[in-house]
Design goal:
The protein is rod-shaped, with a radius of gyration of 38 Å. It is of the alpha+beta class. The chain has seven helices and four strands, in the order H-H-H-E-H-E-E-H-E-H-H. A hairpin with a 2-residue loop joins strand 2 and strand 3 (about 155-165). It folds into two domains: about 1-30 and about 225-304, no CATH class; about 35-220, no CATH class.
Length: about 300
């Protein structure tokens, strides 16, 4: 294949050779630029989504802290010993705030948040197999503070960010240590089979924010099309100008030299080589001019 291309390429005129070379450079440059740009834009899109997710994490954790430090003590004073109010639970408050944020803010309408627990009180928070694996990884590596990547769920691909979740306040164990210590109202609502046996500072679950991967890829695709369009136009204009310049200042002068040389070869000594520049083409014209002068002198000497 390469030999065949080389054969046809060597039989092309100089102008066409230059055009072919510039096209190869153009296609190669666009291809390499596209590959590099696609990776950069995918990373940038993920980074943008990650920034929004981290802002969401900080908001939710602020709500959790506020509920645990201020709302919970205030409501507990007004509740009987066996009474239970969901508003005192940090995870309930954070979920309600997220739902409100998601409904009122288009920037978060495609985000999904879950406190995925290994043994939750509310079964809706039960971690699936994928989330369970993430919890185990956080347990195995105490220095691991975040995980992110892509996962499939309900035949759709999601980009997720996960953080470890553990009880750090001993007051929270009232509802999660043993059924006997928990409020009776809570037992009536959720039963005694789930949400007990938790330990302080032990990672029991993960906070997970997910967003459809199509949105991440769509952001990258839109930016890719825009930037590649601009890059392609710049490349095309640069190639066109280079081709125009080469034809005007290299190919055309060489063609003129060829025409004059052909005329001289047929005996027309009145034609002149025209020097239009001081570059390599100009040096070629000077060399042919000297050759013509030498040829004229030689012919005159021969005639004498």
């Amino acid at each position: 294949m390469l030999r065949l291309f080389s054969f046809y390429f060597n039989n092309l005129r100089l102008a066409k050779k230059l055009t072919v070379l510039l096209l190869i450079i153009f296609i190669g440059g666009i291809t390499l630029s596209g590959l590099a740009l696609a990776n950069i834009l995918n990373y940038k899109a993920q980074d943008e989504i990650s920034s929004n997710a981290w802002l969401l994490f900080r908001t939710i954790n602020s709500v959790r802290s506020y509920t645990n430090d201020e709302v919970n003590p205030e409501l507990e004073q007004r509740l009987e010993k066996d009474e239970f109010a969901a508003q005192t639970i940090p995870s309930y408050s954070s979920r309600r705030v997220f739902e409100k944020l998601r409904n009122d803010n288009d920037a978060y309408k495609d985000f999904f948040y879950k406190d995925a627990m290994l043994n939750p009180t509310n079964i809706r928070d039960k971690a699936d197999s994928f989330e369970t694996d993430i919890v185990q990884k956080f347990r195995q590596n105490k220095n691991l503070k975040e995980m992110s990547g892509f996962r499939s769920f309900d035949k759709e691909k999601f980009y997720y960010i996960a953080r470890p979740l553990a009880i750090t306040e001993s007051s929270c164990l009232r509802c999660h240590s043993t059924p006997e210590a928990a409020p009776k109202n809570m037992i009536q609502i959720y039963g005694t089979e789930h949400g007990f046996g938790w330990k302080l500072n032990l990672i029991n679950g993960v906070q997970m924010v997910s967003i459809p991967a199509s949105q991440v890829l769509q952001k990258a695709h839109q930016s890719f099309v825009l930037v590649m369009g601009i890059v392609t136009m710049i490349f095309a204009f640069a190639i066109y100008m280079a081709n125009f310049w080469l034809k005007r200042y290299v190919v055309r002068p060489i063609k003129r030299v060829v025409r004059v040389a052909e005329a001289v070869s047929t005996g027309d000594m009145d034609v002149e080589f025209e020097k239009v520049a001081n570059d390599e083409v100009g040096s070629l014209v000077e060399a042919f001019t000297r050759m013509k002068i030498s040829l004229v002198i030689a012919m005159e000497s021969l005639q004498e």
